[in-house]
Amino acid sequence: MKRTVGLVFGLIALLIGCVGTRSSLQTSIAGSSLSPSVEGSRIYFVPLGDFSPAQLDSMVQFYRQRYGLEISVLKAVPIDDGVRDSSRQQVIAEKLLATLRTGAPNLANDGRAILIGFTSEDIYPASQNWPFCFSWRDANAHTAVVSTARLNLHRDSAPFAADISATRLRKVVTKDIGVLYYGLPQNANAKSVMFQFVVGIDDLDQVSEDF
Q1: Is 211 a member of any domain?
Q2: How distant, in Å, are the alpha carbons of 5, 36, 46, 102, 180 from that of 42?
Q3: Burial 28-40 (b: 16+ CB within 10 A, else e)
Q4: pTM listed for this prediction
Q5: Average pLDDT for residues 27-35, to the nearest whole number?
Q6: Per the structure, how many domains does the chain have?
């Protein structure tokens, strides 16, 4: 009887160990095939305007667990009225990106620093004929700005999940990390997080969170 009980507990411990090992292995595999395009690169998240730094904590944890990335959150950079287009009630993406770089001059001039700024305001690129954008990046400047303004929009064709906004935000940021940190190309695969033609919520919801 004692031997049987011992075997049962041994099997349970083995199963738990296997589950834990598998989880660790999955995390390891997620990041093992990727390496930064510039050795020694580091990613920095930067709140812009009144964007709460606390909103970035779960994302920092996610990228640490998923890809083994240690991301630092910097102090907030204010948004000047000069970057806003009052006629459209939007922020000009190119100017916001420049504001981010001006707010972190030492890192902006460090070729190994990846800056990703976050704003809750709606943004659009003045250089493009777009009504808005989820993100605007400059790969040469290793900088991107991300807007959460439209990430809670509801799709009539799908039920609204409580965590959909967070999932959408991760997809946008993961693509920026793919381009700026890993040097990955965008593609025409509508299921890939690196899909080039994400122009609305429907497209964003279709892509996965994986490279």
Answers
A1: no
A2: 50, 9, 13, 18, 10
A3: eeeeeebebeeee
A4: 0.84
A5: 61
A6: 1
